[in-house]
Structures are given as C-alpha cells and as structure tokens.
C-alpha cells in the first residue's frame, strides 16, 4: 500500500511538474499581461488628459477670440508721425496767417480812409521794389533778391486789398449815399430869394408811440397846424426824415391836409455813416446860406451842423408850446433875409431860441426907444 501510495504520489508529482511548469508559464505570462494592461491603462489615463487638455485649450482659444478685445494696431511709424506733425503745423500757420490778414484788413478799413490806404500802399509798394546795381557784389545781389522776393507777396496782397475795398465801397456807396445829387428841383426864378425851412418829423412835428394792446399810434405836436400854415407864407417847407417812405407818406398825408409842406424826403435821401442815417443838406440843391434845419435832434442827425437849429424834443407833453414859440423868430428871419443864416444860428447855439429872441427883441426895442428919446431931445 505504501508502494501504491508512493507510486501515486510519484505519478502525481510527475504530472504535477508539467502543470507546475505550465502554471509557471501562465503565472509569468499573467503578470506580464497584467503589467501590459496596467501600462496600457496608464497610457490611456495619460492620453485622455492630454486630449481633454487639447479640447480645453481649443475652447479657451475659441472663447478668447469671442470675448477679448482685438489687439491694438501697431503704432504709426516715425515717418508717419513726422508727416502728420508737419501738416498740423502747416495748417496752424495758414490759419494764423489768414486770421492776421483778415484782422489787419479790418483794422485798416476801420482806422484809415480809402485815400490814406492808397497813399500807404503806394509807399509800401515803392519800398518793395529794390533795384540791384550791376556792379553790386554777389552778397548784395543775394540780399536784394531775398528782399524783393520777401516783399513781393505783401505788395501783391496790398494791391488785392485795395481792389476789394474799392469794389466794396462802391457797392456800399450805392446804398449809403442819397438817392440823387439833387434831391429837390430847381427853384423858380421868382423864388430865388425864398429861404428853405427843413423840418424833421419824429419828435419834432409828431410823436409815434407803440403799445402792445393797440400797436403803433402817431400824435401831432401841439401847435403844429398853426406853425405850418403860418410859416408856409415865408418859407419853402421840406420834411426830411430818416424813416422809410411807408412811414413818412401816410403821416404827411394826414398831417398836412392844406398842402403847406412842399416836399418830403425819407430814408433813401439820407447819408448812411457809421450805422446812422444823416440828413445831408448839401444835396438839397439849395443855397446853404438860406437853409435852416429844425429838429429835436438837430446836431445829432445832420451833417451840416452850422445850419442846424435845435428844438426841444416832444414826447407827448400836453403843455408843449415850442413850435408856437418859434414862429416869431422864424418869421423875423424870413422878413429880414440875412445874407447868411449860419452866423445867426451860431449866435443862438446852446440857448433857448424863443427865450433868447424875446430878450433880444426887448433889448432892441429899448435901444430904439432911447434913440427916439435922444432925437426928441436934440430937436428941442
């Protein structure tokens, strides 16, 4: 039995070796397979993060394109900056030169008359011409050339300014000057001795007032009817206003229903100077020694102050008698016909004419009475 067991064990051991060998083979192969599987899983583990990282980097790049602002453009080159700076400087110089030229022209137009500007321009153009003698040195020739070249542009500019100013003044003169050199027709031969009484309209004969609820209204000055009717026997009466025809004509039609005013002149007959319309008595076609201009603003509205007679401006004062008070003085002048009315007007300058005339009349009567008394004394 022992032999049998021993043979069985031996047989078993004999069979066990190949199994063990096989087992060893499989045991060795399994760890290798397992290790290879681990390596492949590790490789797979390492491969997946790289793929995810790649996807993540793509997403990040994509999101960066969508969300981040575009990169700033590259700065301009120094050459471009230089050109831009030169162009800016050129524009500044050109603008400054234009402003200076316009300011100079404006000042010259304001400060100097056309004759003065022409004289100064002629002197400047004469100084701009530089004659270089033939025997001059090279340096002198260069200096002369540079001087003449430098002065050419201002000289041409002065010529252009003169041409433009002449053209503008001719255009302005057509609007500023009276509509005619002879505003009134010639006097008849039998009327050569008659004096001309020129009357302002507003605040002299009438007063125009405006209120919101009724608009414009014109009021006659107290005594204006008697004033016109009486003096029409002694004077050629002319109304000379700085208002438009559409204002003057309707007022005169209602004011002078008896035809005492021989002529009426309005704004187109005035002289426009420094933004104001002046009466120019030299255009009336009348002898200036026989012209009186009566106005509430006589010295401020007439170019010939020596012919201007001041009256108190009327602004709706109900007790005004200025026109009636002037009738004796104006009648006396018309009857006595002084050779030149201008010295007479000058003797009343700055005084109340009516009051002064009454005082002088009283003084004259007193002297006449004294002469009579002396004559009576010597006759005795």
In short:
With 380 residues, this protein is of the alpha/beta class. It contains ten helices and nine strands.
Structure description:
By secondary structure, the chain is α/β, with parallel strands linked by helices. Among the domains are: 98-176, no CATH class; 189-349, 3-Layer(aba) Sandwich (Rossmann fold), CATH 3.40.50.1000. The protein has helices at 2-67, 78-111, 114-128, 138-176, 224-231, 245-255, 298-301, 322-336, 341-347, 353-379, and strands at 195-199, 206-211, 215-220, 235-240, 263-265, 271-273, 276-278, 291-295, 308-310. The chain has a five-stranded parallel beta sheet. A two-stranded antiparallel ribbon has the order 2-3. Strands 6-7 form a two-stranded antiparallel sheet. A hairpin with a 3-residue loop joins strand 2 (206-211) and strand 3. Helix 8 packs across helix 10 (353-379). The longest helix is centred in the first third of the chain and has 66 residues, at 2-67. The protein is elongated, with a radius of gyration of 57 Å. The model is unreliable at 1-69 (pLDDT under 50). It holds the Pfam family NIF. Keywords: Membrane, Mitochondrion, Mitochondrion inner membrane, Protein transport, Transit peptide, Translocation, Transmembrane, Transmembrane helix, Transport.
